[in-house]
Design brief:
There is one protein chain. By secondary structure, this protein is mostly helical. The protein has one domain: Alpha/Beta hydrolase fold, catalytic domain (Rossmann fold, 3-Layer(aba) Sandwich). Helices cover 39% and strands 6% of the residues. A 3-stranded parallel β-sheet has the order 1-2-3, with helices on one face. Helix 2 crosses helix 3, helix 5 packs across helix 6 and helix 6 crosses helix 7. The protein starts with a helix and ends in a 16-residue tail after the last strand. The C terminus is likely disordered.
Length: 225
Amino acid sequence: MGAVLVDALADPGDASLPAFHVVAPPLPGYASSGKPERTGWTVERTADAWVVLMARSGYARFFAAGGDRGGRVATALGVHHPDHVAGLRTFTPCVPEPVGGIAVLGDLTEAQDRRVADTRRFWRYGGGCSLQPSTRPQTVAHALVDSPVALLAWVLDKFWASTDRSDDLERAGQKRSLPRAGGARQPRPGTARGTGPGAAVTTAATTAATAAAQDVRRARGGARG
């Protein structure tokens, strides 16, 4: 899916639409990135590094976009480097629960009640995908990088539980990359996760947030049932 978006942004196929230079660096320790020499690659430190990367690439001002951990890095860019960020978009916004809990918001709509219930259900039954790698990343990492079956099972679980399943499963599982799973990299022990659920931040950068219909982590924070 990422390659599809990159291609569409670089060449929209319509002369009336804007085209962009797309810079898509991997997160430290992920995908094509090398192994970090030391721990401490928080989202804030990654954002600082990306500002330097963009400047060295000739872009003093740019748009930032991302989801999941990449969305937090994009947010950190807007928070800590607003003069460089022309616009910010995150498609996994993390909204902290207000002090005092959901009750302080008063009566919720039926749709809002469902979202709160979805969030609590996620943290009760599905939050291990976040908690386990954040505390003992190497435990699951060895299985994911050694076994294509383990990697596909991990992807399938997320595909089934956390999306609307409208995408093609074979493409979502990146079938062609599975035999090379041994070359993948995982977070290293001690790597800080950066700004997490419940942290309220502000940014002067123009910001847009998108939440997919089946994004179960719409209102994260204190709603961990």
